[in-house]
Design brief:
37% helix, alpha+beta, 5-stranded antiparallel sheet, 946 residues
Length: 946
Amino acid sequence: MDYSRYGMKCYARKLKAPWKKLVSKAWIIAFRLLLVGVAGVAVCVVMAGFGAVNALLDTAPQVKIDALTPLGYSSTSYYSDGTVAQVFAGAQANRVPVTIDQIPEMVQHTFVALEDTRFYEHSGIDIRGIMRAGFSVFREGGLNYGGSTITQQLLKNQIFSGGNEDNNLDKIIRKVQEMFLAIKLEDNMTKDEILEDYLNFVNLGNGAYGIQAAANTYFDKDVKELTLSEAAVIAPIAYSPTLRNPVNYPEENAERRMYCLEWMKKLGYCTQEEYDEAVADDVYPRIKEIADRKKASAITTFSYFTDELITQVTKDMVEELGYTTEYAQYMLYFGGIDIYTTQDRHIQSIVDKYYTDDSNFPEFGFSSSTGSCYELYPYNISVRHKDDTVTHYHRNDLLEYFKDYDDTQGYYYHEHGKKGINELFLNVEDMKAKIEEFRDHVVGEGDTYIEDMDIVKQPQSSFTVIEQATGEVKAVYGGRGPKTGLRTLNRATQSTRQVGSTFKVLASFLPAIDAAGLTLATVQDDSPFFYPLTTKEVYNWYNTGFRGLQTIRKGISSSLNIVAVRTLQQIGAPLGFEYLQKLGFSTLVKSKKMEDGTFYSDINLAIALGGLTNGVYNIELNAAYASIANKGVYNTPIMYTEVRDHDGYLLLSKKTKSSQVMKTSTAWLLTDAMEDTITNGTGSRLAFKDYKMHLAGKTGTASKNNDLWFVGYSPYYTAAVWTGFDHGFEQKNKSYQQDLWRNIMEEIHSSQQLPDKEFEMPDSIVKASICTKCGKLAVAGLCDQAEGGSTVATEYFAKGTVPTEKCTCHVRVEICKKSKKIARDDCPEKKRKSVVLLIKDENYEYPPEWEEILKEEYPLPITTNDSPYIYHPEELCDIHLPDGMMLDENGDLVPSDETDEETEEDDENVTDEEDEEDAEEPVNNNEETVNEDANGDVVADDVPIG
């Protein structure tokens, strides 16, 4: 370009050229339009952005203060002494709420120092933190950098479900809404309220949610006891509950712990001295020791008591609070409720000790001195073949596969011989090998299968303890050995079993005495008995014939089946059934339609011996006997007293429902008779060995020893024990269940030093001397001199039920010493003997239609223990006959030509010996012992109870 004067003038002229002026003007206009356009776009963008932000904020969740309070608190059950029995914690529910004033400031500050240093200064969002995070985003890329305040973290976890969006746009939207809500939240909540909710919510690893749970998890202490060193271990976990876990990653935790301590000092939350002390604390070995100890002692399964407790609490929440079952379950595992149980920690520990010790059960073997084995139940395998067809195999297929196996080692139970295998066995490894071989046989190459099996020790057992005065269940055990699973079969509360002779008292003798006018002195004939209109015989447990006339007291103490059934027949089965209903049994069948259209009912004579359609639960049988121990008052068994929510408000209150189901006098009379069961009856093995205590109870044996029971009580507790195979099998050892009951109950009483005391006799009880062969008042010089032994006993009665008649079943007669028959007038005086015989008809006859069936087993005439002492007036002496008379083939006197010389000679040979025997017999000169007391009731003097 020419910069001379001339050159510049030429250039100026060019610029002033018209076309140049037009171009310049066009560019100016275009620039102006561009500026206007940019301004317009900017305005539009701002307006659009403003609208978008408003839309984001309008769609932000509505936050209620209550919604920020952490949910998912663990629930706790407590023993009756107030100590923790069980913790119920669902996922993220191991949380124990604490208020901010229960959390030391030092602990609060460790979280502030690490998570939000300007927490007490900002208004919900930290601008500096946001800018730092934004710079990191531009520098590193991604949206994973922090900047969230404690307020934002609380909102993120409680309102936005922890974040973790699928894409960056959703994450940005959540971040914007989160910051907006954080500002609003701080207008409605104080810093302490926000921090309290945060510290109760935050995930602190190892299943601990919240600072209190973490303090207990890692240091086995309350949060208020934490040191700075320990708090600085817990606070870093919030950054990463997995990678900063001090148990699994102590080095990573230690690095962030030091960072925490440095910030604590820098922010003035601790002194140099406190800092130095924390740094010097070698905290991680202590954490490991606590973690190892907790792991070793951790309760991995709920107890049998807790299993049933869950069932009861859930049921009551549904019925009394109107909850759904699902919400009731949620409350148990996430609601932070407190359940105050009736479980006695000490008593339960005693029961646990005996039931987890296998030496208290029969040794393994199939003999009568052993009896334990394993059972394979169930066993199923479903095989899907390559062609998509499916074949199902069951246990019987497994047994059939090995039907020709020679069991030379005796590992399997056999009815006969040693061929094949059985579901009952002694060697687990051998059975598993058999199962593997069978599996290989049925599963081909390319096949898939599903297998279901379980191996259980047998026989099994259950045990319950109830405090009869309150109905409180003190201990429960529902199976043999340590419990190994959650909500497993609870044989104490879920398995119904046949009860055998334990029902004699409840279904027969109780209603007979309480409502039908019978007494402990009432007599039934222990002789052959068949259920009406059947050929089904009632057998006694013993096999030594029949005992003849027996009192109800004897029927209880000696567990006489025929006496029980005859008693129920006398009072009527409907009355017995009615009493069972009052005693709380839930499994009774009043009427049930069978598949063939007929109806079945438990209202029959078989209930006297426990013959029920469905059997009963251990806990219900125990409660029924507890009502006898409790003076006739039935208390519904309860397992808890209160349920409160996590704020302490009462949700449920549980009280036993009491009802007088029998007279107080009846309860005492039955108790007195059942004391005989233990002192000299079928339960003599159950008396305590080394600790004196009054006990009463009843044994029970179901058909073929499949179920063995004892239910008994002291003045303090009632306990029931059952043993048997889960799926029915004759038990070889028939006494170990009694040893279990005695050992457990004796330790319960001795360890508590409970004083021995008698069962309190009510004022309504009187006593009288009775004849045990007719149940009427005994006659001195008659009943006490009966052939076969004295039949006199002192018996107790409820007032108004004492018999008023004197014995009518004994008669004094003279017999001939030689013939042992009723003496004739012709029997010499010195050959006569005065005896007391029993008046009883033993001319048993079978119905014609049964005679052919029954006479083979019991050919007539049938005899009992009474038979030798029965008075037969028609059986006269056949030796001393009138002169010139003899007996014909029909036993009638007819004339005879023979003399009595031979007879008289025989008499001379026996006279001296028999006279000496007679001289040794004491002459009873006792006066009748029956008297009337001040109330006019008949009593007896100093005659022992029989």
